[in-house]
Each structure stands twice: as C-alpha cells, then as structure tokens.
Amino acid sequence: MFFGLTIEKVLVIGVIAAILIGPERLPRYAEGLARFTTRAREFVKGARSRVKEEMGDDFDDVDWRKLDPRQYDPRRIIREALLDDAPVPTVTAASTAATMLAAGAAATALTPGQRAEAGPTPFDSEAT
Fold this sequence. Notes:
By secondary structure, the chain is an all-alpha fold. It has five helices and no strands. The longest helix has 30 residues. It comes from Microbacterium lemovicicum.
C-alpha cells in the first residue's frame, strides 16, 4: 500500500479505533471520514484539471514516471552535472593530470643547480 502500511496493519488500526471511539460516536466519525475522502478526491481532480488546462495539449505527452523524485540519486545527478560541464573530455584530463604529476616528480628530482639552469618557475596569473 502506501507509507509502509499493509492491509493487516490498517485493519488492526481500524479495530483499535472502533473500540476507542465506541459504538455511539462511530457513525459520526465514519461520516466525517467519508466527507474528508470526498473532499480530497475533489481536490485532486481539480488540481489535475488545472494542470491539464495550463499545460494544454502537452499534458498527455508528459511521462510522469520520469518526474518521480524517488528515482533520483543526488550523487548521480551531481556527478553527471560535473561531467557535463567539463571543458575537456575526462580521459584527456586524466592523462594530462598524469603527465603533470610525472613532470612534477621529474622536477623535484633536479638538483638546485639544474633548476637554476632550467630558468624561473613558470607563473600562471589566472591561477590566483
């Protein structure tokens, strides 16, 4: 069913409610529940008709299952958004990072004299 309730649980809740309310007040509460159910059904129908009216002919074309928020995984959404905005392909970025790490390791293996011969350290004005 919904909210983790099964038929058995609903029946147990109904029996307990009938015992607690008592036979004198039970018809009045049943009538109130019926009115509430009718109002809720009318509200849903009204909301559906308003959405259909505002969307026009596109209402029937929408796949409502795709819009179910329970199917979304925030980690997947963020990962896809980050990969979509990547300026270079991920494989190229990974290989570039590996090349830079290898070059950095080679640069740290230089002696101070060799570094002086290599010239000043490159400066990137956009990195700060």
